[in-house]
Each structure stands twice: as structure tokens, then as C-alpha cells.
Amino acid sequence: MKVLLSKHDASEIVGIIFPFLPRHAERLLDDGKTVFVKFFGKGRIPLKLQPGSRLFPYESKGNKEIVGEAKILRVESISASDAMSVCGTSLFLTQSEFDDYVGNRRGKIMLALILEDAKRYQVPLKLNKSATMAGQYMTREMYRKIRGESQKAINVKTES
What we know:
By secondary structure, the protein is α+β, with helices and mostly antiparallel strands. It has a single domain, classed as Hypothetical protein (Archaeosine Trna-guanine Transglycosylase, Chain: A, domain 4). The chain is 28% helix and 35% strand. The chain has 4 helices and 6 strands; from the N terminus they run E-H-E-E-E-H-H-E-E-H. Strands 2-5-4-3-1-6 form a 6-stranded mixed β-sheet. A hairpin with a 5-residue loop joins strand 3 (54-59) and strand 4 (65-79). The longest helix has 20 residues, at 140-159.
């Protein structure tokens, strides 16, 4: 099994950023869906993710911002053929969307993140660059920096 490469030590990682369509982020953050699944190229599972890490949905359309977070309860591998029956209505994708995403990869293994405590940010966090489909680890330093920049933006708006 290959690992999602990162120059950071696992203790520096607070979570992972993945791009989402706005409707998918809404399902996780607002509609109570608790399972995120994703194919991870060539079996690369992000081993630095552990229970307690966070998933940061990055809206890939529109403003290109991190719009919230959810705590990762469990990190699992599941075959695509079993994912819908095991996850059911907790999955962030509809049956049709899931079928389109999986296509002819039913035998492949997927990453499954079981989530809790999802919350939408009142003020989304801006990234300096776009998040890739492969995901990007969020380090403690990165999290502090973008949270601080968002707070500065709030202060500027309220002072104007």
C-alpha cells in the first residue's frame, strides 16, 4: 500500500482538505450526511489521518474556499461494490452520483471517512492555491495562518 506523501510529520497534521461540489459540501455540513468516500489512486490511503483528524471541505466551484470541517471518527477502506449497501443513507452522494463516480471500478477499494460534529464556517477560509483532487494535508501551522487571515478580513469588514 502506498501512502499519500507529505513532508510533514503525522503529529503536525490536523486533517485533510478535499475539493467538493457545493451540493456535496452542503450534504455533509448542513444535511447530516456522515460518510465521505473517495478513490485513492493506486491504493494510496492517507495514513496520517487518524480518528480525531478533520476533513475540510473545499468548495471547488465559486469562491474556492474551505467552507467548514468535520471530525473524523474512523478511517476505513471499503470496496466500491460494498460502499452503498454499507453506508446507505449516510453517504454524501446519492445513488445516481455514486454509480456515476464508481463507473466500472466496483472492485476497487475506496477510502471511507466516517464523520461527526460537522460544522459550516460563518466565514469561509481562503487558500493561497487550489486544492487538488488528491487532497492536501492541513498542518497546524497552515490552519493557524488561514484562520488568522480570515479573522483579519472580518475585522476589516467590521471597521469599514
